[in-house]
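We modelled the chain as a single entity of 91 amino acids. Its sequence is:
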Amino acid sequence: MIDRSSRYKQTATYIAVDAQGEPLKVLELRDISKTESVFAHSPEPGQRLDHLAQRYYRDARKFWRICDASDEMDPFDVVQPGVPVRIPPDR
């Protein structure tokens, strides 16, 4: 079950078959449209995505909004001390 605050809440599903021939309900790929940022934050050592999400959105679970505004593929590469992170609006 997908939480109503999840970025996948409106993503379509389809049935796939696993290696044992069992049907599985899986998510379609999620389209990530260009996300405009409002401003940039320069992280300090030890800051993480959830810290930034809590600070700017008052909800650490919204870290994915910051990920979507980044060009990085790996969420762990988004926050690097001293490298500005784009912070998009909370829509």
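As a brief sanity check on the tokenised model: Residues 49-57 form the longest helix (9 residues). Strands lie at 13-17, 23-27, 39-41, 85-87.
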